[in-house]
């Protein structure tokens, strides 16, 4: 029958041959086969495995009834390869063992599990090429599918072929962006030929044409229809069950079977495992003997060997759906009784849930225990599914609300935000306690922020915090801090003040959250000067906490941009900002918490950009992109926008700025609109378009409180306005700075203030420029120092002091060239030429020939990282690292890592 299904698939089989040849040649190959049910996906996969001579072949398949079991599909794929675990690092081994239920431990991060899977496949492929086949991806559980998607995107230089089959339409697009093969129906000629193979003897021409037309070339439909009609019908007319898409309906064939056979098929369809011993134990409880299988086997619908297999997934679906609800309860009850409660407690709980005709507390408790086990294994989505089922089966209303809330939290953690909101709606309809009502509002606010509805989030979180005040003061304070953070992102002055005023009247609890919340609330209600002592206390308190005390996510949130990071900026403390940011990256990386690591990298990259360390920032941005791609999401984006601006890449920066402005405006993220305006001002100041820079800076400076932001935009506003003859705007910038520098005497603040005062071109301009250079020279802010030197040199040249100007302009030019700030570099180069001096032509740095990932790998190698260490950090295999390093050596014209220092110097 397989040969019949492959008729007319010559080009498709050639595509699969290319996949195998790539893996045989030592390079990875990924292919996603897409098509409707019965179109021939499974037949192509069988052909692929038969043609994989010399390969190790491992397979898994999604089962509709097993989608709630965490990592079930991954376990099926990896179980035969677990002897290769020793090749992995210990954290990866532990993560994969815990995820697969083979060991106990802390819940592993899903992407550490994914990295371990990638490493396992790469290790196994060292012996001989590996072919991994995943059928019915649309039914794979929510733990396995993202892991295999991650692996598919990170394979490169390993002899691994990974082929998926996806039934479409399948709701949300699965594995977008990967190479794909779309299967269509056979053309008329091939469909007729297939029908002729299946039906010996003559067929009425009109009947043949009708069969071909109604099946739309679907091979399974053609074969099943031919099987279901007799010679008389083929001679003159027929009636058959063909769906609108041309797919076949197996219900008539199932209906023709004996009752016991139909029931056995329904039982087998209800079991996701395919274990024949389990099926026979359950069948015995239903009074079904082995003879019941014979008609199904003879009809080529079922195969019973080492596993129970259906001829096609459509047969399984049709069999299960043919059972009335009461019969399904009986089937699952029998399977639950036959399932070993010690070996497979979660499958037993799942069957018991489907067997329950109504609320059942005992079953709900069992499901809740399964949810806890799934959570321990890192199966967040599975945990949410078990909790949702447990809530549905809970008879007591208060207990039901508790479980609905737990399910909603798990759904939110799994990224299923709309599903979480639906569960919250159900919880709200029940008899909620005061605490539960507050929890509902709190979670609604958190989800609103996850959905980038910052203004809505702030209002909801303030309401939740006020509810918590008499119930849980510590949680109330944390929620008030969340609300302020959301309001800051919305950048609505009224919303910010409302959140801050609500926080100020909240009773104190204790701990770092208290001092941070108090400091921000004072800053936002009483102004800058009054808040500085509280801001300093808050920053010192958090810096004294060397690491998380158990709750990693909470610690990262507290020390990040929405809390203490803002305070470090308000205090113009670049060293504290750098310490907080670098510590976040270190802690998140060591914990393998990739979601948190993405945001930590973004936070640290922003700090590096402010310091003018553009090459280091580019490495961090690239790593954030790697994580975002691995998670199937997108990077935060604004650091990439700023990097392009500081590099003077006008077209690229403009595109990113416009996109950020458009998308942030649509989402109500006013802060990001302001950041885009500041970035535009910096871009245009660098390339000398001062009118545009002034307008952008003025838009970012107006009507905002500028928490953790004003120190950046005020300098751009002053510089652009001084060049366009707008002294009033320069005076406004000086006034803004004058409110801060008397109480914050950092070199950063004093250096920027002196630089801005110098732009007024008064009698003390030269002293102000010199003061700015002296202050900024004591910081790590190389970009700001070079800009001060550039402005001073320009001022000296305009005042006829060309020789003096030359010194400062050359220093600025050297710095801009060294850090890659080409816009400002060209501006400095023109100024040097205007002094009458000669300058060397700018030489494009060798690293320009490298891709971002190649440069990232080269820098990690330069820092002394081994290939396995680099692979673990970038989520690729050591073999892929080696492949990239060879390309780096060729592009840089070197032959060893020892030469990297000369070919790719570390920025000073």
From TrEMBL:
Pfam families: AAA_16, GerE. GO terms for cellular component: cytoplasm. Keywords: ATP-binding, Nucleotide-binding. GO terms for molecular function: adenylate cyclase activity; ATP binding; DNA binding. GO terms for biological process: regulation of DNA-templated transcription. Residues 843-908 form the HTH luxR-type domain. InterPro entries: AAA_16, P-loop_NTPase, Sig_transdc_resp-reg_C-effctor, Tscrpt_reg_LuxR_C, WH-like_DNA-bd_sf. Gene3D superfamilies: Winged helix-like DNA-binding domain superfamily/Winged helix DNA-binding domain (1.10.10.10). PANTHER family: TESTICULAR SOLUBLE ADENYLYL CYCLASE, TRANSCRIPTIONAL ACTIVATOR DOMAIN. This is AAA family ATPase.
